[in-house]
Write a structure and sequence with these properties.
By secondary structure, the protein is mostly beta strands. The protein contains one helix and eight strands. The chain has a single domain, classed as Beta Barrel (Porin). 12% of the residues lie in helices and 59% in strands. Keywords: Signal.
């Protein structure tokens, strides 16, 4: 038991050592702000909150993205998650992050994400925007 606990703690600390936090703004007909924290090199859970809505109509999304390709300037990802409040349902994401500047903290992104609502059918959302990574020095 102690050995398993020690291994689990080591794995969590190792993942945290290679992780980074990112904030993003996505512009579309359903715009939103996203905050994520990358664990390791592949997994990026993200919390998203809709903007340009009345407070009672805010949409919330919890997405798990998986990095397919990660280079110095370009990242390609896919993912899935759930959406609550406005257009409750499932979300399937695919996108590209591009960091064109020497310091790879500020960049741009595009994303395609079908929203499959439990009550209102399906909606295909495309978005573009900006992304900022809090890099560790």
């Amino acid at each position: 038991m102690k050995k398993s606990l020690l291994i689990a703690c080591f794995m969590l600390l190792s993942a945290a050592a290679f992780s980074q936090t990112t904030v993003a703004f996505h512009q579309s007909n359903l715009p939103f702000i996203g905050v994520n924290h990358q664990f390791g090199e592949k997994w990026i859970p993200e919390l998203r909150i809709g903007t340009d809505n009345y407070v009672e109509d805010l949409g919330f999304e919890l997405i798990g993205n998986y990095m397919l390709k990660s280079e110095e300037s370009t990242q390609i990802y896919i993912g899935a998650g759930i959406r609550a409040n406005l257009l409750d349902g499932a979300v399937i994401t695919s996108g590209i992050n591009y960091f064109p500047f020497n310091r790879k903290d500020f960049g741009f992104h595009i994303e395609a994400a079908p929203i499959i609502s439990f009550d209102e059918g399906a909606l295909f959302r495309g978005s573009f925007g900006i992304r900022y990574r809090f890099l560790k020095d």
